[in-house]
């Protein structure tokens, strides 16, 4: 596995305020990192350091070089949070200009087609809607056929169709072996594509791993079924942490999904309409960040 990013014991402060605390991170080729965290957690700050837009010591390396080095810059594409400066340049003129800076850029027509931007190509940047602007910013980020792509809340403002096109393109880039760090507050979307999730909380990594590992650690399964029994009879099942009943629909939460389900079916074979769901990333995330706040 080829190491693309290496961060060792990184601290970063704005003046007296510590923003990132003892960050350790290794990212290998082909990984898709979903970087999640509340507003102000430090996600954009970390990306800016990796891009060399904020200073770091030699404990941060990108492609074996200092962030912001020419070697690294050539291989990186980025879509940051702020949109492009509004200007009287047309979409295709702007992208052509970006493409000219690189020797290995993807044909402009291909990008316009893929992002469904052809019909907007003659618009001035300053007349674009928020979602269209994000698409042009994304086009600019991938135009140089980068190996490493930073996407900071890429889908904000995109409509459902643009979002769909966007995630399909990310999937294609993943298949091509690109390495990506994507921040997003849309956890449902990020969990589909990320090979590793990182949860940043007030400048510290509080979790790194796969969605499965995260779910296992906060293992909760929700089992829904229909039954005429009183809800209290289900309290004796193993692993139960909560039971709710609304007319004949029972919803139980358990930390031991497999065994709870086995017992339920053997003791109460007449229950019906059974549905089993793992806790969503959204709920786990809320639970994690709230737990930490209380500590
Ligand atoms: N130029 C700056 N000067 C001083 N403080 C800053 C500066 N930029 C960011 N901060 C502070 O650093 C902290 C982390 O900000 P950052 O933008 O990295 O958060 P984030 O995780 O990207 O949040 P969001 O989800 O809102 O984008 C915040 O408290 C923010 O106010
Ligand atoms: Mg941010």
One letter per element, helices H and strands E, the order comes to EEEHEHEHHHEHEHEEHEEEHEH
CA(first)-CA(last) distance: 37 Å
What proportion of the residues is helical, as a percent range?
25-40%
| Residue runs with pLDDT of under 50 for 5 or more positions | none
Annotation, overall tally of beta strands: 13
CATH architecture of the largest domain: 3-Layer(aba) Sandwich
**CATH topology heading of the largest domain:** Rossmann fold
| CATH C-level of the largest domain | Alpha Beta
For the biggest β-sheet, the strand order reads 5-6-7-3-8-9
Describe the structure.
34% of the residues lie in helices and 28% in strands. With 295 residues, it is an alpha/beta fold. The chain has 2 domains: 3-215, P-loop containing nucleotide triphosphate hydrolases (Rossmann fold, 3-Layer(aba) Sandwich); 219-278, 2-Layer Sandwich (Alpha-Beta Plaits), CATH 3.30.70.260. It has a 6-stranded mixed β-sheet, sandwiched between helices. Strand 6, helix 6 and strand 7 (179-183) form a beta-alpha-beta unit. The structure holds adenosine-5'-triphosphate and magnesium ion (MG). Adenosine-5'-triphosphate binds at residues 14, 19, 37, 39-45, 81.
């Amino acid at each position: 596995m080829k190491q693309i990013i290496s961060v060792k014991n990184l601290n970063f402060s704005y003046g007296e305020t510590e923003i990132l605390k003892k960050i350790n991170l290794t990212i290998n080729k082909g990984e898709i990192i979903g970087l999640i965290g509340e507003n102000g957690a430090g996600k954009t700050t970390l990306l800016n350091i990796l891009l060399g837009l904020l200073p770091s010591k030699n404990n941060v390396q990108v492609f074996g070089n200092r962030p912001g080095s020419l070697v690294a810059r050539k291989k990186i594409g980025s879509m940051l949070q702020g949109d492009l400066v509004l200007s009287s340049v047309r979409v295709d003129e702007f992208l052509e200009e970006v493409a000219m800076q690189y020797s290995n850029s993807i044909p402009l027509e291909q990008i316009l087609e893929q992002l469904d931007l052809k019909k907007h190509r003659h618009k001035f940047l300053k007349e674009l809607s928020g979602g269209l602007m994000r698409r042009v910013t994304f086009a600019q980020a991938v135009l140089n056929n980068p190996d490493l792509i930073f996407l900071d809340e890429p889908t904000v403002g995109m409509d459902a169709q643009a979002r769909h096109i966007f995630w399909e393109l990310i999937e294609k880039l993943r298949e091509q072996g690109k390495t990506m760090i994507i921040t997003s507050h849309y956890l449902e979307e990020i969990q589909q594509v990320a090979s590793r999730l990182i949860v940043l909380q007030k400048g510290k990594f509080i979790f790194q791993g796969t969605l499965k590992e995260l779910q296992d650690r906060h293992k909760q399964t929700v089992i829904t079924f229909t039954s005429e029994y009183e809800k209290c009879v289900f309290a004796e099942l193993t692993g139960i942490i909560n039971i709710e009943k609304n007319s004949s629909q029972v919803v139980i939460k358990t930390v031991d999904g497999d065994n709870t389900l086995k017992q339920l079916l053997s003791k109460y074979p007449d229950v019906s309409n059974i549905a089993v769901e793992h806790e969503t990333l959204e709920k786990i995330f809320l639970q994690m960040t709230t737990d930490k706040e209380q500590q």
